[in-house]
Amino acid sequence: MAWDPTVLKDWQIAEAAEGNIPTTAQYQEMMGLQKDEIIPYGKTPKIDFLKVIDRLKDKPDGKYIEVTAITPTPLGEGKSTTSIGIMEGLGKRGVNVGGALRQPSGGPTMNVKGTAAGGGNALLIPMTEFSLGLTGDINDIMNAHNLAMVALNARMQHEANYTDAELEKRGLKRLDIDPKNIEMGWVLDFAAQGLRNILIGLGGKKDGFMMHSKFGIAVGSELMAILAVARDLADMRERFKHIVVGYNRQGNPVTTGDLEVDGAMTAWMRNTINPTLCATVEGQPCFVHAGPFANIAIGQSSIIADRIGLKCFDYHVTESGFAADIGFEKFWNVKCRLSGLKPNVSILVATVRALKMHGGGPTVVPGRPLPDEYTRENLGLLEKGCENMVHLINMIKKSGVKPVVCINAFYTDTPAEHALVKRIAEQAGARAAVSEHWLKGGDGALDLADAVMDACKEEVDFQYLYPLEMPLRQRVERIATEVYGADGVDWAPLAEEKAKKFESDPKYADYCTMMVKSHLSLSHEPTWKGVPKGWRLPIRDVLVYGGAKFLCPMAGAISLMPGTSSDPAYRRIDVDVKTGKVSGLF
């Protein structure tokens, strides 16, 4: 059944739908799993990845469906909601379908954006568990990451206090870490702007090494990026050895392997390798694995979850973070390259609201009422804004993947507005469907399901944007011009110096290019909407993630620790002390 989301809040719909959560036996039947391949964990069991993938390694893969979006407003345009909605719609069509979503961060959940559980009747359950820690993967990432920082600070303290001979007696070799060139910081899974820059080690010589340090949000940790791209536990273990924590006084990297902490980090994260099982409110199974933050972390549901999903489901839906210029580009050129998987179709989520913004509509501010331009019919504003959608349709087509535009319907939209967007999308060579999954669940996503199944029947001539042999600066130039629409790239002296060093060192030949820029514009400048013209992409620095094997060219300033707003969600979240039920989670 569908609940009325215009009357009920998301947490109320989730509570009413909890009877639809499959039992362990039902999960086994739907997914073809053996009893010992499900690890009990309350309402949200984990799947034993190694057992499942070994048993099903020779089974043909199902259809691979990726979900991305046009450049969004700061409110988001419903990628998670659409990912769940298409699972429900395909379920209504009687096909074996499931998916993979990313685990939400406590920062957005307790702040403005919410839980990333979808919304209305396109919702993931159990919503409370999903929103508040689930099976502990993010907590394990925090512990493993912060253990590396404990090891780093303790080592710096001991090297400052002991001679080389005294260190040798303790089985240590001097690493000569440069306190002014520390790469890593601490992590916390909240938006805590007061921890962006800190001083640690105050007190005496037994109180740690005194130095400037910092906090980032946990889901932005390199460990989250590694969880997303690792193929198995052995791959994860090997990558953990090469995480760069800082540099020595000669400028050489100091790694977690040098600190001999990589094994203990893997021990903390050994259980994170197994995806968690949740379900849509209509009962379709959905893996939850890896996390958000698509700037430096890859922002994709994991390769592991996709590998299992493609074996267990005839249609597997996976979500990419942020708009297509970031999310799909990284899915296309990083995730698919590392996984060896090739998608059948990409769903490009569009809303009338966001398209009007790109057509020149007023600024959209979270927490404030939408201006009238967004709630009244305005075909001129909408048509101009469709340039952004067409640009991203054309970008997806360059990969050989079939785009399907999902017009994510809001109750303020008009039939004429939907018809206009559909016509423009089809003229650009995409299939398009209006979807009312938020209001009606799977029944509202039937046209979208039909368009996706139709697209999946076609052959895909999948090809990457650039070969792995292409030097870093040429890769960035190609991404900037062919994905973002820039006229070219301008390198700051520091960034160019680093890029030349990486290009000349064979060690970095197989590193992925992980672009870092604003998600609110095709450009680096978040206020430039639509399809900006006559601009160049400035690269100010290049970060190195040695374990994930990412080189991260940075366009503009990106903070790894978001801030909490003046009206955060935690003000409305509470617990019924008689039942223990949580309310207020959007």
Describe what you observe in this structure.
The chain is 34% helix and 17% strand. Among the domains are: 121 residues, 2-Layer Sandwich (Domain 2, N(10)-formyltetrahydrofolate synthetase), CATH 3.30.1510.10; 83 residues, Roll (Formyltetrahydrofolate synthetase, domain 3). It contains 20 helices and 26 strands. It is α/β, with parallel strands linked by helices. Strands 5-6-14-15-4-16-3-17-18-19 form a 10-stranded mixed sheet, sandwiched between helices. Strands 7-12-13 form a 3-stranded antiparallel sheet, covered by helices on one side. The chain has a 3-stranded mixed sheet with strand order 21-24-23. Keywords: ATP-binding, Ligase, Nucleotide-binding, One-carbon metabolism. One of its GO terms (molecular function) is formate-tetrahydrofolate ligase activity. Pathway: One-carbon metabolism; tetrahydrofolate interconversion. InterPro entries: Formate_THF_ligase, Formate_THF_ligase_CS, P-loop_NTPase. Its EC number is 6.3.4.3.
